[in-house]
Amino acid sequence: MLTDLQLIVSELVTNSVRYGRGETIEVEIAVAEDGSIIGEVEDHGRGEVAMREITDQGGGFGLRIVDALASRWGVCEGSTQVWFELS
Hints:
By secondary structure, this protein is α+β, with helices and mostly antiparallel strands. Helix content is 30%, strand content 24%. A four-stranded antiparallel β-sheet has the order 1-2-4-3, with helices on one face. A hairpin with a 5-residue loop joins strand 1 and strand 2. It is globular and about 40 Å long.
């Protein structure tokens, strides 16, 4: 589970660096009573969080990786704050 957590956070932070406004990126991780891991990454951007088309240059995999590894994930409405859960 730790490797999945590292990869999810890495992909979300990379997306924040690449597509965010270049300001502070906030990462929060917590362990719930049942042992699941809950996390959030926010870059305070103005854009829209969306899966991008996969390109020949190797881009477009970030949210697909999050989708494949996380038990659940989503975007807080009207923000660039992405949350995820690992059971």
